[in-house]
Amino acid sequence: MKRYIGVRLIYLVLTLFIITTATFFLMKGLPGTPFDEEKLQQLPTEQRQKIYASYGLDKPVVTQYVNYLGNIVKGDLGTSFFYTGQKVTDIISGRIGPSALIGLQAVLLGLAIGLILGIIAAYRHNTGWDYATMIIAVLGVSVPNFVLAALMQYYMGLKWGWFPVAFWESYSSSILPSVALSVGVVALIARFVRTEMLEVLEQEYITTAKAKGLGFIRIMFQHVIRNSLISVITVLGPIVVNLLTGSLVIENIFGIPGIGSLFVDSIKMNDYSTIMGITIFYSAFYVLVMLVVDLLYGLVDPRIRFASGKE
Amino acid sequence: MLKKKKVSLLAMMMAVTVVFTGCSFSGDSKDAGSTTGTGDTATTGAKELKLYVETEIKDMNQWLASDDVSFTVLNNVGEGLYRLDPKNEPQPAMAEKVDVSADKLKYTFKLRDDAKWSDGTPVTAADFKFAWLREIDPKTGTNGYSFIMTDYIVGAAEYAEGGSADKVGIEATDDKTLTISLKQPTPYFLRLTTLAPYFPMKEEFVKAKGDSYALTPQNMLFNGPYTMTSVDAASGATLEKNAGYWDAANVKVDKVDLKVIKEKSTALNAYKAGQLDRVLLASSDVSAAKSEPGFATGINFKTTYLQFNTKADGVSNVNIRKALELGFDSKLLADQVLNNGSKGATGLIPDEMSAVEGKSFREMQGDLIKPDAAQAKAFWDQGVKELGKAPKITMLVADTSETKDVATFIQSELKKSLGIDLVLDTKTSKARGQLMDNSKYQMAITAWGADYDDAMTYLDLWTNHTPYRGNYENPKYDALIMNAKKETDENKRINMMLEAEKMLVTEDAVVAPIYFGGYSFLLNSKVEGLDYHPYGNPVDFKYANVK
């Protein structure tokens, strides 16, 4: 097990290296520079060169790349071009909080409701319960979350005044965005759980369990749900990464200072160091979550537990 | 076994939740009373203004800041020699008065005795000299605004090129006297001193803070009507009345809460919920909002125009350019498509920009462009005859929604008036800029926002002969601009610029003005005196009051 994690961590570093390299060169291919070109136009070429030089942008791309890698190894993601003078690590850590809180709440809420709906739908297969649940699931997947967010903002925020319309001022500010984000998760999880449970319910070991005279609750929790969770864990990995790293649209609608909008803005502004910083952060997070997912498989299903090198 | 694992998993998740919920909400830092809403404003007597900006608050360092939002904040926590009044006229601020020499080349400013920094120390002439030299030096002044000093101040351009600081015409004669030598008479020089790059700053403070200067309010020094209590690029800033400000008696609002809201619909909802005092309207909301109290429009000094590349196929012919210029009616565009307070352009210099003796440049010039389909067609036919064939015209467009609407409108109008199929080449703003820099375009939609309230901010642009400015090169035009810059007689100077605009827009048809930028907004009826300036520093909270 330890060895397995060790190998995976080495892969993680390798993956990050490849992603960093690819992003760096792709990014340098973007047209323009991080500066306001219209204003720079006004300056004599010599002065413009001086400005580029002060950011090390006058050097060949390969040299810039080597310098950048050197800094990363030292744990320095550089300073932002757009938010001049601010450290990229500071910017990211300042922005990740709201996004992560909203994302985590959305995942937990979505998971809880999705599981319940999925279990009900599977258990009451082909009844009104099933159909109702699946209608909710289809709606949840097909209605874009920004439409929902705008509707919730208008009704629950403005008209009925249950929650703050927008902004990040108190805990209640996080509720509407979390709910808006969770609807998609509910729909996805419910559908997965239902399909998977239907399959598990037909397995012979369930018949065996029933024949053994096990109680309903025991069959459901120890056998059916546990075995159905494998597929849920598979989809949960990417969902967690996706939601915890912020949503541009939801953040913009609710005026939340999150990381989703930061990423998109940094690309628009050619803010090289911030683009790289967030990319590395996202990738590392993603690869780590995937590792956790793989480990969770083992917890849930002993059949895919990892042998310690004696296969 | 299984149970144990489940429990530990749950514990892990909870631990994570605790970590995240530890993150700060911007409301946490505020005084406890604010949660009770607007009601407590009346009871405590504190007047609060609740506003927002549409993009992040990028930079609080005056030598780096280059965007309107940063200027919005800087202008209210800092102050230059002069400050614009509600009528956009410069009034003495840090300076008490100024003496201008007869040849209009020497400005001697006398600073106020009660001009103070927020740390209690006096604002001195040396603070101005330090800040201005820092702006001119390309190593430290990287906001791209140094030209508004190097173009005017003696020796500044040379200093920027590596020359001596001693030869720059900025002299701190004593603590309270600042003498500036200009290269040429500049009637709008006092207006320039109202801009953030012209603000003073204390050298020892900047040196002491080093790299962390202006990153947080604690690392900033204020001399404006307000001080900053908090700032976060993504969530906003809070300002508080500066008790030590020389004119504090006339500052009525105690607190300004400035949020960052990028979605127009979010801002509108927040306004309706009473969380904002003013909201900018999206054009789709204008019709519905017109009947509401507090609806108004304003203008920016920003003209959107078509830049022709005078060296490109087809549009190198002046008659083709004139045809394209007259072939669309921008009044229709402004009223029906944009519907946001913008006005159809009748020239390059925007409405309300000052000229002389209280008259605006546009009043003096009159309408240069009168859309006329028949005349446009005649120019087109003439151009085709000269070229030997009908040229294929491609218009370069940035991929913003407003620009695309404008482009589609022009396309359909030209189809009607000239019977041509205009090709639209849509690119990101940056790629568009690059194609223009490399002269790889026929015509492009572009815009220029004024840096100061004088037609020169526009007309000077076409003397650099770059591809971005259409490769325009006309010695007569260059001479007009050069002479206007030297002219000490205001009337003569304005006349030269009037002629230059005519040359650029009608005779040589290098640019085809499309519209003057404007905006529509709703304002809380309790708020008055909240003055937005059409250029430079966008807004003053100094004169505002909440009833």
UniProtKB/TrEMBL annotation, chain A:
Gene3D superfamilies with a match to the protein in the record: MetI-like
UniProt-recorded name of the protein: Oligopeptide transport system permease protein OppB
Pfam families: BPD_transp_1 (PF00528), BPD_transp_1_N (PF19300)
Origin species: Paenibacillus pini JCM 16418
GO-annotated cellular components: plasma membrane
Membrane topology listed for this record: Multi-pass membrane protein
Transmembrane segment boundaries: 9-27, 102-123, 135-155, 175-193, 228-254, 274-300
Location (main, coarse): membrane
Keywords per UniProt: Cell membrane, Membrane, Transmembrane, Transmembrane helix, Transport
Entry keyword Membrane: yes
Any GO BP annotation: transmembrane transport
ABC transmembrane type-1 domain: residues covered: 96-297
